[in-house]
């Protein structure tokens, strides 16, 4: 399947609250190494450079990638750079492609339970995952990318709920104001009729 089709299928599976805000990209260069990246509101969140992965680890596949080729070990928590979602070379463009493919071809339950941070990160954005399940996942020890995307999704859902609640309150306020005005006009008519008698 072509990358453009995979990208479209993955992004269309996202919840409405994040669907147009998060995109995944992939490009390759003449050396075929290329890179993948994920953006949030047009700003690049992570760079998944195949060249960096090969240079740093001498291997382009992360240990959690479902492929029978040599893989490099995952980055340990105590080796992570603070506030960095993905370490340089931690994942490659190939890791992203395989993660997207696996995400599309397995159940959401399997994706959420995956040891692969890229698959789990895509899963927390899925429209199939509700608020309750997101709350349960939030209690887990997560990869920084998965945590950031989960937190973003939860906040985006909260913003939508708040907006809906404000719309409902405003609509109810309009109805109440109209009812009060009608009641006051009715009472004024009764008072006027009573005064003229």
Quick summary:
This protein has 197 residues and is mostly helical. Helix content is 52%, strand content 10%.
Describe this structure as you would to a colleague.
This protein is elongated. The protein is about 50% helix and about 10% strand. The chain is mainly α. It has a three-stranded antiparallel sheet. It has one domain. The N and C termini lie far apart (about 85 Å). Strand 2 and strand 3 form a beta hairpin. It is built from seven helices and three strands, in the order H-E-E-E-H-H-H-H-H-H. The model has no long low-confidence stretch (mean pLDDT about 90). Helix 1 packs across helix 3, helix 3 packs across helix 5 and helix 6 packs across helix 7.
Percentage of residues in strands: 5-15%
The amount of helix comes to 40-55%
Radius of gyration from CA coordinates: 25 Å
- The coarse silhouette is elongated
The major sheet is characterized as: 3 strands, antiparallel
Count every helix, treating DSSP H or I runs of 4 or more residues as helices.
7
Alpha-beta classification: mainly alpha
H/E element order: HEEEHHHHHH
Q: How many E-type strands? A: 3
Distance N to C terminus: 86 Å
Question: Which regions contain 5 or more consecutive residues with pLDDT less than 50?
Answer: none
Number of domains: 1
Largest beta sheet: strand ordering: 1-2-3
Mean pLDDT: 91
Salient structural properties:
52% helix, 197 residues, elongated
What is the element layout, followed by pairings?
Layout: H1 3-12, E1 22-27, E2 35-40, E3 43-49, H2 50-57, H3 93-104, H4 108-112, H5 117-123, H6 131-138, H7 144-196
Antiparallel strand pairs: 1-2, 2-3
Helix pairs in contact: 1-3, 3-5, 5-7, 6-7
């Amino acid at each position: 399947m072509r990358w453009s089709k995979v990208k479209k299928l993955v992004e269309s599976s996202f919840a409405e609250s994040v669907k147009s805000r998060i995109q995944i990209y992939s490009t390759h260069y003449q050396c075929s190494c290329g890179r993948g990246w994920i953006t949030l509101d047009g700003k690049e969140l992570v760079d998944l450079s195949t060249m960096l992965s090969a240079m740093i680890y001498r291997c382009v596949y992360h240990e959690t990638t479902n492929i029978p080729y040599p893989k490099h070990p995952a980055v340990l928590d105590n080796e992570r750079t603070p506030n960095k979602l993905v370490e340089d070379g931690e994942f490659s463009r190939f890791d992203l492609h395989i993660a997207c493919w696996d995400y599309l071809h397995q159940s959401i339950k399997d994706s959420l339970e995956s040891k692969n941070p890229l698959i789990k990160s895509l899963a927390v954005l899925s429209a199939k995952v509700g608020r309750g399940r997101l709350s349960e996942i939030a209690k887990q020890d997560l990869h920084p990318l998965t945590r950031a995307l989960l937190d973003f999704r939860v906040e985006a859902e909260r913003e939508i709920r708040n907006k809906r609640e404000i719309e409902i309150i405003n609509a109810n306020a309009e109805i109440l104001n109209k009812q009060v005005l009608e009641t006051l006009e009715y009472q004024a008519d009764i008072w006027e009729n009573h005064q003229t008698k």
